[in-house]
Amino acid sequence: MERIFCQLTDIVDGDALAFDHDNSKPGAPGLFVIREDEKAYCYVNGCPHLHITLDFVPGRFMNKRTGVIQCTNHDARFQIENGKCIWGLCKGGTLTSLPIRIADGAMILEASAGVDVATK
Ligand code: FES
Q1: Ligand 1 pocket residues where CB is under 6 Å
Q2: Of 36, 84, 87, 90, which one is least surrounded by beta carbons within 10 A?
Q3: Which atom belonging to ligand 1 lies closest to the Cα atom of 51?
Q4: Which domains are seen in the chain, by residue range?
Q5: CA 1 / ligand 1 centre spacing (Å)
Q6: pTM score, two decimals?
Q7: Ligand 1 midpoint to CA 54 (Å)
Q8: What SS3 state is found at 112?
Q9: What is the pLDDT of residues 78-102, one digit of tens each?
């Protein structure tokens, strides 16, 4: 079943927002959604370095100076559009992406993602 995260305008352009993952699976990792202009990207909140959440600083996923995703544990940096690590201890690794689309201004997790989400 697809789920609406929020409205595109609920996230400041260039920033990200955290969401719970699947309420039916205790301990499932969270998700975060990035807005980049009129586009949105969704990733599992798990760093490929140590498989812990990226936002050691809660809710902080972005390096706004460089315009990339940044893990706040050891500062690995990832491209927004594909989640590929371009700098840091997991260089070459990738974040796990989930399919998201925008319809009528809403960010929608595609049904094929197979997860249920709720606002964190
Ligand atoms: S846990 Fe993310 S860089 Fe180490």
Answers
A1: 47, 49-50, 52, 71, 73-74, 76, 88-90
A2: 87
A3: 1
A4: 3-119 (2.102.10.10)
A5: 32
A6: 0.89
A7: 7
A8: helix
A9: 999 999 999 999 999 999 999 999 9
